[in-house]
Amino acid sequence: MNWDGRSGVSVRRRVCLRLADGPYLEVTGGFPVVHPPFGEILVTPVRSTERGAAKGRPGGTGPVRPTRGFPNGGCPEDDEGANRRAAGAPSEEHRAAWSHLVATARRTVADGLVVGTSGNVSLRLADTVLVTPSGVPYDRLGPDDLCAVDLDGTRLSGEAPPTSELPLHLAVYRATDARAIVHTHAVHATAVSTLVTELPPIHYQTAALGGPVRVAPYACFGSPELARATVAALRDRAACLLANHGTVALGADLDQALERTAQLEWMCRVWLAARSVPGLTPGVLGSAELAEAAERFRGYGRHPDDPAR
Ligand SMILES: [Zn+2]
Fold it and tell me: pTM value?
């Protein structure tokens, strides 16, 4: 029986292959994880100073700083010693939050929003960010996989490298008051991201996400360019699409970020269905209708005794 009551034997394997000029390929848990169109096998050159730090050589006893594309800067096996030194014992609060985060990540798969490990989930607790690790199937995540970083990306807990989209998550947390982020490659939303620069507001649910959902211009996954484009697309919004990539939704907690992801995917599906009718064009809502809906949402769900109701 695993930590969350699921039966089965948890076997974790990591394999690192060094290529000719220094880059590594990482395969975690025996699963090279697909991250279309490139695959989520991460490749990055390893600088000699980082490898020295990872081995505990002079000049390198602190936590390894993240680098583009591979947040721990190299093969995770090389960094294991440094990771153990950097890792503190997670608090009970963090352990409980991690359990909720893992449950949320599994729901993205169960709800059809994620295939394999093609998405990622994070939660901010003060200046600590818990985030799904790279390349580990969610049904294999346990309490020992708790992955925590600070807002600069410095590893605080965990041995597996954080998601390759860590720069995006951190940039959003630095720029917004979000406390949770869900990123997926949900099929209808991803399809829409290849067609338009903004999801046409054909449903009033658009107002619940802050207005018409923007599509951030394409940039390679894991890149600082994608992180910047995402922050810009999220201005005054609770969600956005990433061109030729997927979705990002924010929340005050994990449940809200997941719910918004599901709503966005549903809205994209509705628009695709409506626009597929030959000879007809879906009608869009104007700013007045969206403002009215937004006002209604502000009162929706409040307790009857709420004086602001
Ligand atoms: Zn992605």
Answer: 0.72
